[in-house]
Amino acid sequence: MKAYTLMVLFATQGLLCGTGYSTENQYNKDITVRLEKTGETVQGEPIVVTKDQAGNLYRKDVHLIPVNYAGPDVWECKLKKGESYVIGWRAAKGWFKKKLIGYCSAPFTANKDGQRVSFGPGLPATFEYDLSKLPKYVKKFPAKVILRKIGVNGEHDYILRLSVTAKRPGIVRIKDLAAGIYYLEATNILKRQHRHEPFLYDRRKIRIESGKRCRFDPIIPVLDTTVDPGDVTIRGKVIDILGKPLVNREVILVVRDKDGGSQRELFYEIMKTKSSGGFVFKGVIPNRDVSVHCSGESRLLTNNSLPEHADVSVNIVVGRKRIKCLPGEAFLPLVLVDKDGKTIKIEDFKGKVVVYDFWATWCLPCIRNMPKINALAEEIGSDDVMFMTVSQDTDINVWKKKLADEKWDALSHGFLDLTQNEYDYEMPGIPFYIVVDKNGIIRAAGNRSSPDLRNEIKNIVRTYNKKKTVK
Questions:
Q1: In angstroms, what CA-CA distances link 41 with 37, 44, 125, 436?
Q2: Most confidently modeled of 4-8, 172-176, 200-204, 421-425?
Q3: pLDDT over 70, % of the chain
Q4: Residues of the chain with CATH 3.40.30.10
Q5: Cα separation of 42 and 122, whole Å?
């Protein structure tokens, strides 16, 4: 019988004494299943757990199903007909006995009495990660290497986590592994404040083969020091909230991948600001999202801002206050600019109910929800109720182009220029909505969907109109 693809189940030795198992199945009938081992492995015996227990072997309440010896390489166990199970291997001695319940088969369903199931635990393997030959610019140690075993239920079902820290260049080894698919994560980013320092950012799936020494070379990020045709120049200044230039501050440019996370395959040298607070990155690859970081502040430039040959400017304001947005508190005025570059002062909106929609052109949920907000503005907007979008983009030209391409005419639009604002509201993410009454008091705030927002706004407007009628 064809052996099932093997997966590994791990736990401490003290977790092997559980009893009982799930009885949820469509037949509720005990049948006898014969387990037949194929191929070489270390000395030991099989264990059986229900499929839903396969990823929980670190828990004290894991349930093991009794298995009886029935002859050389053959065992029998009583299983529930219609239930799905996996087979593990419990080693008899050595490191396995302490750490490993072991090599888990692919799930199988108990179908009939006398059913035979073949499984092949295989021999232990060794993982090796070669950090002995690194580029000259790679200087950061220690480096942490982590392996996560992917379980029977899919890529995000990790049933084991092993880690090794390399304090100097060399070969990193993890021995006595079971065959199967692992998720490798290797990084020298051990502290949050170092998360942008480039050296190693290797994250991928790897296959460990039974009984073999499996060596992997790290994915070392490439330092981009050349200026190629079409490359982009990014320049700017680092200033405080009063506009004073900040000197000798480190500015970091991080390339972002298509999913929005930090990409480490390519990086640029850290720049320091000059006496004017200025910095410049030359030779940046075009048509990619990048973020510029300095002193805890960051600005995102999307690929729309960085076409070939682009020369863009971005200012970073350090020291802005973060203010909580709380209903019942006064809405502090922000300075915005409109599409024509004219200043919009929010304090001029007193006497109206104002709905502020904080968004950005790179935010897909914002874009998807904008037509709904526009429709809501068409429905209940008036001289007394207005809707103002507040863009958090870095590139004002990208924002203008997006507005020109869309028909969101029921909304007023403003661009948040950070150089003119000493504070910003704390937000868990965008889109973020703030509803302010005619007296400038916040009445509702949050990541609201349009139906909820509609009800909140209508209630506020209804209350406003009642008070207006009474007067």
A1: 9, 8, 11, 69
A2: 172-176
A3: 81
A4: 321-470
A5: 8
- Domain range 125-220, CATH architecture: Sandwich (2.60)
User: Residue 313's beta-bridge partner residues?
Assistant: 235
Average pLDDT of the residues of the chain: 81
> CA 299 from chain center: how many Å?
19
Residue 46 contacts residue 37 (beta carbons within 8 Å): yes
Q: Which of 108, 17, 106 minimizes the C-alpha distance to 66?
A: 17
CATH 2.30.30 fits 6-119, yes or no: no
- The rounded distance, in Å, linking the Cα atoms of 79 and 63 is 13
pLDDT band at 451 (very low <50, low <70, confident <90, very high): low
**Token pair of 186, please?**
């290797």
Reported confidence tier of residue 32, pLDDT bands at 50, 70, 90: very high
Select from 276, 268, 312 the least CA-distant residue to 293.
Answer: 268
Residue type, 174: I
Q: Where in the chain is the domain with CATH 2.60.40.10?
A: 125-220
Q: What is the band of 194 on the pLDDT scale with cuts at 50, 70, 90?
A: very low
Domain 321-470 has CATH 3.40.50.2300: no
Arithmetic mean of pLDDT, 49-74: 80
Give the mean pLDDT of 438-467. 73
Q: Residue 247, Cβ neighbours under 10 Å: how many?
A: 13
Which among 206, 215, 205, 213 is positioned nearest to 125, based on CA atoms?
Answer: 213
Q: Which two tokens stand for residue 399?
A: 């924002």
Q: At what angle do helices 450-470 and 364-380 cross, to 10 degrees?
A: 30
Q: Is the pTM of this model over 0.85?
A: no
From-to residues of CATH 2.60.40.2190 in the chain: 223-318
Average pLDDT of span 337-346: 86
Per-residue pLDDT tens digits for 162-185: 889 998 899 999 988 888 889 998
pLDDT at 19 over 90: no
* Residue type for position 142: P
Alpha carbons 281 and 84: distance in angstroms, whole number: 57
Using DSSP bridges, classify how beta strands 321-323 and 423-425 pair: parallel, antiparallel or unpaired.
parallel
Considering the four listed CATH numbers 3.40.190.10, 3.30.750.24, 1.10.10.10, 2.60.40.2190, the one that applies to the domain covering 223-318 is 2.60.40.2190
How far apart CA 44 and CA 90 sit, in angstroms, is 5
| Three-class SS of 43-111 | CEEEEEEEHHHCCCCCCCCCCCECCEEEECCEEEEEEECCCEEEEEEEECCHHHHHHECCCEECCEECC
- C-alpha 408: how far from chain center: 31
